[in-house]
Amino acid sequence: MEQIDANQIAEQHLQACNAQINGYWDEDEFYEVISFSQLPHAELTSGSWVISPNNNKNQHGLQLKFALTINLSVASDSLHGHSPTTIGDLILILDENIEVVDENWLINVNSPYVIATPG
Questions:
Q1: What is the DSSP string of 3-22?
Q2: Structure pTM?
Q3: Which of 49, 39, 48, 34 is nearest to 11 (CA)?
């Protein structure tokens, strides 16, 4: 089994979609576009195997959940210089070839670092 860098997969996914979500539902509110004031950082929080039946055989995959954070400069934090703020989660489903086949975003649309355009 090959070793994968889950955080790199998420970072590449964020860059590929220009850190933008087109068509997002938050409870009863629809947003045409969700974007961010700066590119979020993805940090793996959990992972699990996914087995889903498909016709006569099972399909296997990997579900990876990431916390999406924005790094903020904080003058009082002289040791680290940054204080991460979580703005949501990203869940990626990967197939056997480590390709993204599905995604699920859970975004705090009320965050000052999220730009939510109502639809």
A1: ---HHHHHHHHHHHTTTEEE
A2: 0.82
A3: 39
